Amino acid sequence: MTESIHKTTITDLARELQLTPSTVSRALNNHPAISAHTKQLVQALALKRHYQPNRIASSLRLGHTRILGVLIPSAEINFFGSVIHGIENVARQNDYSVLIFQSNEDEHFEQQGVQTFLRSRVSCVLASLAKETTHLRHFTELKRRGVPLVLFDRVSDELDVPSVVVNDYQGALLATLHLVQQGCRRIAHIAGQQHVPIFHTRLQGYYDALQQLGLPQDDTLVVYGQVTIESGYQCMRQLLELPEPPDAVFAVEDFTALGAMEALKDAGISIPGDIAIIGFANEAFGKYITPSLSTVDQQTIRMGEEAARLYFDYAAKGSFYETPAQKVVLDPVLIYRNSSLRLDSG
Questions:
Q1: Mean pLDDT estimate for the chain
Q2: What pLDDT, in 10s, does the model give residues 170-218?
Q3: In this protein, which residues make up the domain named HTH lacI-type (predicted)?
Q4: Average pLDDT over residues 303-322
Q5: Considering only CA atoms, which of 281, 264, 287 is closest in space to residue 333?
Q6: What are the structural domain ranges in the chain?
Q7: How many angstroms separate the CA atoms of 205 and 33, rounded?
Q8: What CATH class has 61-165+300-330?
Q9: Residue 243 preceded by cis peptide, ω within 30
Q10: What is the pLDDT of residue 92?
Q11: Do 168-298 and 61-165+300-330 have the same topology in CATH?
């Protein structure tokens, strides 16, 4: 039978020293009203009994937790893990901790995450909206209660809160231009759900690139998916059934691109010889698959760092929502790999 491990509490220390719990608590916090002798006794016993303070409980008593609540759509996507890494960098510098909740791209779970953060009294919520989110009531509730909210990547201007995004429009424009520079002329786009602003913006960047380059806009070359590997596969199959298939594909993100590449391989089609591919997000797998995946890097670690800094900058100014909401826009960076490189760029 496993022996239960008793965690030493302030009450345990007080009982052994024949002091009140409040005296022990003040001694541990170096309160000036407690004598040096008593502080020494309490701290020595705390060390001997391996006492660990309950940081959350003490923070709740003070009314602030020094915890950032981070709400992400999926923990399976390296993009969001990298953003969290950036958030943690800045949180640690400010002696804050990070509490993570995953919405699984579901609005209901997203609402649960917000409620969890409210119950935990986090100092701030940093969130990226789920693909299925169509109502924002849970986020407006945060604002109503005065809980700071910072959005990153998938944001909503309707909420009027500080946010950090990459220039999705510019990224799509550059990705499409790159395919043209590789000699492609029938460039397809596998798009995402259009109620999600970043996916709509990437589609617009693709359309505008075609217009700027004098290429015709063919709506049969735009197919709409669910931003998954499976959806990317099916969308690519749909494009291959066209009387004149594309010679290149700009995918809305890397998992969609991966599905498209699998469909091309199953059909015996050369990448990039017959059809070139470029994705968006710079997921970790991209450089390890064959051929390696060209993509648009979103500066994820910096995105997380900027999101956390926005909270600390606004908090230092006083009332969070009295300061006009700032949107930080990061420049996209194209990553050229084998899936799109048809011509010698050197």
A1: 91
A2: 999 999 999 999 999 999 999 999 999 999 999 999 999 999 999 999 9
A3: 8-62
A4: 91
A5: 281
A6: 10-53, 61-165+300-330, 168-298
A7: 65
A8: alpha beta
A9: no
A10: 94
A11: yes
In the chain, the DSSP E strands lie at 67-72, 97-102, 124-127, 149-152, 163-166, 187-191, 222-224, 248-251, 276-278, 295-297, 327-330, 333-335
3-class secondary structure, 102? strand
Q: Are 339 and 292 in contact (CB under 8 A)?
A: yes
Architecture of domain 168-298: 3-Layer(aba) Sandwich (3.40)
Contact 256, 295 (CB under 8 A): no
Sequential DSSP letters for 205-264? HHHHHHHHTT----GGGEEE--SSHHHHHHHHHHHHTSSS--SEEEESSHHHHHHHHHHH
What residues have CB less than 8 Å from 212, skipping those under 6 apart?
A: 173
> Phi and psi for 125 in degrees, rounded to 5?
-110, 125
Model confidence, pTM? 0.79
Q: What φ, ψ does residue 248 adopt, rounded to 5°?
A: -160, 155
Partners of 191 in the beta sheet?
A: 224
The tokens for 330 are 């990061």
Tens digit of each residue's pLDDT (9 = 90 or more) over 86-125: 999 999 999 999 999 999 999 999 999 999 999 989 999 9
What is the crossing angle of helices 21-28 and 36-48, to 10°? 90
